[in-house]
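Example complex used in Figure S2.
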Amino acid sequence: MSEVKYTKDHEWLNVDGEEATIGITTYARHALGDLVFIELPEIGRSVSKGDDFAVVESVKAASEIYTPVTGEIVSVNDNLQDNLDDLKEDIDTGWIVKVKMTDAGEMAELMDKAAYDEYVAGLE
Amino acid sequence: MRYLPQTQAARKEMLDIIGADSVDDLFHQVPAKAMIDGKARLPDHKGELEVERIMQSYANQNVDALTNRFFLGAGVYYHHVPATVDYIIQRSEFLTAYTPYQPEIAQGTLQYLFEFQTMIAQITGQEVANASLYDGATSMGEAALMAMRITRKSKVCLGNNIHPHYTEVLDMYLSNNDDAQTYEAAEDLDKIEDDTACVIIQSPDFFGKPHSYDAWRKACDEKGALLIVVINEIISLGLLPAPSKADIVCGEAQSIGVPMAFGGPHLGFFACKKKYVRQIPGRLCGETVDADGKRGFVLTLNTREQHIRRDKATSNICTNQGLCALAFTVHVGLLGEDGFKQLAKLNHERACDLADAITSIDGVELVHDTFFNEIAVRVPDDKNAHDLIQTLADQKIIAGYAADENTILIAATEITTDSGIEALVEAMKEAL
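Predicted assembly (556 residues):
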């Protein structure tokens, strides 16, 4: 049974057991504008909570994407490189990486959908 | 332009934030011997004519390449700059142009930068080149940092005899990175380690010897390290094979179109494989089409750069050398591919003549037989290279650079004459 969590940096995580699928939220996607490039990490890289693991570039800005959980990158969505429009809040096509987590306790600091919606509403 | 003065209070606040005691504290890296204690020893005021006379008397103390026999190289080379180069680069459209951020009004500047990049890419056998960097030494520092970013490793292997000024600048680049370290391999391929980010090979090396890269390429691939080739004398690539197998080729292009000018400004170049283009430091110009489908030029991949990426920029200590890059582009344009190759051949022929003449002196030998336009010469053990250079300098012959107590680096270029070589050899015979 998976559950979806959100961060203040506008990433979403779909957590299934010890594996977290990570992407960026609709809010982040709209804020970035027209995307031109995504720099993806290599499989097998170890990441700590707060590390940046990918970079998305729009015409006028480049933004790092941070992992809210510690672990190892076990899967990368290479499809995004040629299909940047797929980068969205969609578990099937829009994810960026899958991380095998080593500390499930980190999940407690993340928001659920209702809390994230409220957080975003507060930003606008 | 507005003048924005700072109050003492504002200065103190800024110093407090960055943890410095005084403004002088900000310059602590400048060696003490290069600093003047107190104020510069200058008179308060003089008339224009007197100032000219004083400055001329200072200038007369210079030992210059025009009025002396000149064989000094060691990273900066004395070449002919055609008058047409100076004429063209002084056109005000080129000379006063500023950073071409607005492509709609900067097509001339952008086009020559694009042509410069194309020339550098073709000469180095690489896929992309940037619009230049400060000089050869900083380009090597940037190359090492880029290799560390790409490989996420922290050791920099100095593969062979690299210019000591370049390694000094590299050390400065890495000095604030606690993980980074450099080590020397002394041409031993087995010295590449698993955590080696890159191997740097200079060719021709500091002692003028050209190197091949095939074995290094293979050894680097086995350890997942990048291969960086540094070129001091870019004219050598008119004769030697382009280092196309390297991941990054960087170095100094002063030899084409740029005078020695007491050591700068010079012209750093930087080229690499296309797959690394987003990690390249500095400015990059690209070709595009406008709304009407006409060919045009723009600065591209700006998101790597400091004005957008801030602290995450690929480099925060670089710019391009616009005017020097223009001089290079004009000179190579005048030479063409054949002319560039002929110039390289001429340089090598002059060096061969020099080597033949020098080795005719008893007790003098070449350190190695292969060279491009600079030879390393060993003088007898009981003679001192520094003393010899001083003795010859007193006779208006600048013989070269003392690489150590018994070794002199002697360069020949298209400027070197038969009578110059003869004078050098006679004076050396006399002095030895």
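Chain A has a mean pLDDT of 91. The radius of gyration of chain A is 14 Å.
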